[in-house]
Write a structure and sequence with these properties.
By secondary structure, the protein is α/β, with parallel strands linked by helices. 29% of the residues lie in helices and 30% in strands.
Length: 336
């Protein structure tokens, strides 16, 4: 009798343990499926000129936005300058080269930078290659540029809370001479067929749950997107992109949705002292809340850039926001 009772107890305990394991597994799967990741994107960052001088003097041009930047799981910026000590300036109106001393400050606030823009090659391929090494040494991730064409088009895979996010970046603004070659350092140029192939490969080869292209496109000072931007945005979403983020016009452009997926055509500037007009002194910092289905919500924070090129938040201002289920993009107060 005693042996039979002990046997029943053992069976009951085994069953209870099995049930607990099942419940634990179900809860883990549910938690994983409900996981969300916040990704923040800041627009054009140029670390020479007055912002570079501020860093040289021991100041931090990102300090006014430090709390907003720190609150995100993943922090991305468009680095619109070369960081190097070598090279000769290209024959163009504006050339930007920041000193390597700026990188520890950048690292304090950003996890990765997009490199596909029209200023990464301002001081030639050797300076660009120097920057790649400096970013690696500082531990700042990068995408949209590389030591050759393959590296430039490879996605940066960032995984948080079990969600794999592929980041891609492309330039559409001349000069195209900055484009990477099969054996030469440079940026990823936007060719429709290649962009589609890269997005598809990010899912099929790199097993990304979400794909986010960051575009350098459009025309400076245009507050509305152009036909080319709209055509390419739709093409990328049809290929499998979950959200499109743009820059280069130096001003904010409209936000729309296509097939339920957001397109932020331009967030404007973030750290930059070469400002041509008051509209260039106002930008957005974009914060996306992501789950495995895509963008769960987004909000923007208004950026006011002072005469030193330093960004300041505007907590009382209102700017675009959206959450899944809403038919239209709304306005939210930045401080909320």
């Amino acid at each position: 009798m005693k042996n039979r009772l002990a046997k029943h107890v053992r069976h009951w305990l085994a069953g209870a343990a099995w049930l607990a394991l099942c419940i634990s597994s179900v809860n883990a799967i549910a938690a994983e499926s409900e996981a969300t990741v916040s990704l923040l994107f800041a627009g054009d960052i140029v670390l020479d000129g007055k912002p570079g001088k501020a860093i040289e003097q021991g100041r931090d041009p990102f300090a006014p936005f430090a709390a907003i930047l720190q609150a995100a799981d993943i922090r991305i910026g468009n680095l619109e300058c070369v960081v190097a000590t070598s090279g000769d300036p290209a024959d163009k109106n504006f050339t930007f080269r920041a000193h390597p001393r700026t990188l520890p400050v950048l690292k304090r606030h950003f996890d990765a930078v997009a490199l596909a823009n029209n200023h990464s090659g301002d001081f030639g391929r050797a300076a660009f290659a120097e920057m790649l090494g400096l970013l690696d040494r500082e531990g700042i991730l990068k995408f949209g540029g590389g030591r050759n064409l393959r590296e430039a088009h490879a996605p940066l895979i960032v995984e948080r809370k079990g969600i794999r996010i592929a980041l891609l970046s492309y330039n559409e603004f001349m000069p195209r001479s900055f484009e990477a070659d099969s054996n030469a350092a440079g940026v990823a140029w936007s060719e429709d067929e290649q962009v589609v192939a890269d997005i598809q490969a990010a899912r099929s080869v790199h097993k990304a749950d979400l794909v986010i292209p960051i575009m350098h496109w459009g025309w400076e000072n245009e507050t509305r997107s152009g036909p080319r931007q709209r055509q390419l945005a739709r093409l990328m979403i049809d290929a499998g992109a979950d959200v499109i983020i743009g820059g280069h016009p130096h001003v904010r452009q409209e936000i729309e949705r296509y097939k339920g997926r957001p397109i932020i055509y331009s967030v404007g500037n973030f750290v930059l002292d070469e400002l041509d007009n008051p509209n260039q002194a106002i930008g957005w910092v974009l914060r996306l809340q992501l789950d495995r289905q895509g963008v769960q919500s987004f909000k923007t924070s208004v950026v006011h850039i002072d005469s030193e090129g330093i960004p300041h938040p505007a907590p009382e201002a209102s700017s675009p926001c959206w959450q899944r289920g809403q038919d239209t993009v709304a306005l939210c107060r930045n401080g909320d």
